[in-house]
Design brief:
By secondary structure, the protein is α/β, with parallel strands linked by helices. It folds into three domains: 109 residues, Rossmann fold, CATH 3.40.50.10800; 120 residues, NadA-like (Rossmann fold), CATH 3.40.50; 88 residues, Rossmann fold. It is 42% helix and 18% strand. The strands form four sheets. Strands 4-3-5-6 form a four-stranded parallel beta sheet, with helices on both faces. It has a four-stranded parallel beta sheet with strand order 8-7-9-10. β3, α2 and β4 form a beta-alpha-beta unit.
Length: 378
């Protein structure tokens, strides 16, 4: 294991027996920056973005300084798919994707002509790690009659094997439509999100047994105790969480949906069951409200993620600046693989566009804006 790193446990599915085992990966731990170093690195990023005709796109879960810098410099902060779509439509020649590797790959799939850089190419995702393309191909071969639907949190090599890619906010609608058509589903990789969609739609689904190392740690018993301590709090839950947590939610949805809920709701206190990185945007969106991180299965050294993705935490201001200055950590994809992976993404985007056209605006403008505010995954 490289120095300056930590061990992270994640679920490695064994679909031959339909379950999963615990595996280990590593994540780099960045040293804290002094206030002077933070400002120095921010200035580097500002200068290099301009001189390199580049744009910075950041996920909701990365460091707050990077989020703020992305918006300040004309980039965006969003979920992985909106990051990729923003980058595709932006005039910049170079995109710096601050997130995890599959996000950089998705940006490259949608913008093959652009240079895609990342602060750290080793920043990965437990769902991606737990869905090996070769093992997934074997799983698909066992179910040739099923429509293959994969979550955005997968590698390009897995997306290239799929019929559809979905995100957490549009997955319900797509699977419901496929179910209406009589199609049976092979779902990967998140078992909790897959189970949630299966319960909500009644679709015939076989599920890959992966999980998010952050959301899998939220526990129903601890959440129930926290709700009793804060009886007026609204509970916001990402559907990658276990069923015992989702069952207690007032709002279940993607990062974009949960973020919208804090401004739409009259509630003043929220218990939030997703990565703590999202709390930064929530506090900016609703500065007079209180946000409490939902409890995980342990504290400090006893929890695997402590509600913050260890790979998202690998993104640093210095990493952004170094990637821009030296052109390091570039995402490279085989063009044929990228074209094949794009097929399942385009199907989802076409479905979303058709849904927009077929839905007439109602009298509740705020509700309509929330409905179409984003179709992001995480």
């Amino acid at each position: 294991m490289p120095s300056g790193t930590r061990i992270v446990e994640f679920d490695r599915p064994d679909m031959a027996v339909g379950t999963h085992t615990v595996a280990e990966a590593w994540a780099r731990v960045n040293p804290p920056l002094s206030p002077q170093e933070r400002e120095f690195q921010k200035d580097r990023v500002r200068r290099l973005l301009k001189s390199r005709n580049a744009a910075l796109v950041a996920h909701y879960y990365v460091d707050a300084d990077i989020q703020d810098l992305a918006e300040e410099t004309g980039g965006c902060v969003s979920d992985s798919l909106e990051m990729a779509r923003f980058g595709r439509d932006h005039a910049a020649d170079t995109l710096v994707v601050s997130g995890v590797r599959f996000m950089g790959e998705t940006a490259k799939i949608l913008s093959p002509e652009k240079r895609i850089l990342m602060p750290d190419l080793d920043a990965t995702c437990s769902l991606d790690l737990g869905c090996d393309p070769v093992a997934f191909a074997a799983f698909r071969a066992q179910h040739p009659d099923r429509t293959v639907v994969v979550y955005a949190n997968t590698s390009a090599a897995v997306k290239a094997q799929a019929d559809w890619m979905v995100t957490s906010s549009i997955g319900l609608d797509i699977v419901a439509e496929l179910h209406r058509q009589g199609q049976k589903i092979l779902w990967a990789p998140d078992r909790h999100l897959g189970s949630y969609i299966q319960r909500e739609t009644g679709a015939d689904m076989v599920l890959w047994q992966g999980s998010c190392t952050v959301h899998d740690e939220f526990k129903g018993i601890e959440l129930d105790l926290m709700r009793k301590e804060h009886p007026g709090a609204l509970v916001l839950v990402h559907p990658e969480s276990p069923a015992s947590v989702v069952a207690q939610a007032d709002v279940v949805g993607s990062t974009s949906r949960l973020l919208a809920a804090v401004t739409e709701s009259p509630a003043t206190t929220f218990i939030v069951a997703t990565d703590q990185g999202l709390l930064h945007k929530m506090r900016l969106a609703a500065p007079g409200k209180t946000f409490i991180a939902a409890p995980t299965a342990g504290e400090s050294a006893t929890c695997k993620s402590c509600a913050h993705c260890p790979w998202m935490a690998m993104n640093s201001l210095k990493g952004v600046a170094d990637a821009l200055e030296f052109g390091t950590n570039e995402i490279r994809l085989d063009p044929a693989l990228g074209r094949q992976a794009k097929v399942c993404i385009d199907r989802m985007l076409d479905f979303a566009a058709a849904r927009r056209r077929d839905t007439r605006p109602g009298p509740d403008l705020a509700r309509e804006q929330a409905l179409f505010s984003g179709i992001g995954p995480a």
